[in-house]
Amino acid sequence: MGRKSLKKTRQKEIVSAFYNVAKREGLENASIAKVAKEMGVNPSLIIHYFTSKEELIFGLINFILESYRFIYLAEEEQLNSRDRLIKVVDNLFSREWNALFDDGVFYSCFSLIFRSQRIKTEFKELHNHLRQLLSEVIEAAKIDGHLQIENSKQTSDLIFIMVEGVYYYLSLFDDEEVYNEKLLQYKKAAFEILNMDMTVEIT
């Protein structure tokens, strides 16, 4: 048990260092040697836990998932199903969501799906997992009578299609006011998909 816990801790430390190197120098320039230098350890220690750069990338994709997962877990116990849904949608269309993971590293990782079937599968599972989490939040609000929608999974899929397109598009804008204005516009559209008024407040 202790060794397994230590292994996971060390792997997280290595992936975090890999992410920092990739964010600073670009994923294509990140290497096991640079990660070792970042951590101040021998490269053999990195190879002990991750035998290749590709394995590090798989770890990074899981790191992305863990970074996004907290959006759904935040304040879960304190909120009812309606308020939790509102909170989740607010978070999805927020600076905090976009800042969870560096866009340059994310899209560099994503581009590898065209060269690696395994990475493509990893990303597909990541996106499906996030959609499933949102679907469960929507379904809970629906069951409690807060929503009038036909299909929670389809609604979740539509909202995530928006989320993915929104941040891709907004990455082209440097003007803070324009960015915030468009983000608010897209969040309003997401609430319209849910047949909810964006002005509702969490009680």
Automatic annotation (TrEMBL):
PANTHER family: ACREF/ENVCD OPERON REPRESSOR-RELATED (PTHR43479), ACREF_ENVCD OPERON REPRESSOR-RELATED (PTHR43479:SF11)
Residues within the DNA-binding region(s): 31-50
Signal sequence region: none
Species whose genome carries this gene: Hwangdonia seohaensis
Domain of life: Bacteria
Function: Represses transcription of the icaADBC operon necessary for biofilm production.
Sequence ranges assigned to domain HTH tetR-type in this UniProt record: 8-68
Assigned keywords, A-Z: DNA-binding, Repressor, Transcription, Transcription regulation
Protein name as it appears in the record: Biofilm operon icaADBC HTH-type negative transcriptional regulator IcaR
SUPFAM superfamilies documented for this protein: Homeodomain-like, Tetracyclin repressor-like, C-terminal domain
Subunit structure: Homodimer.
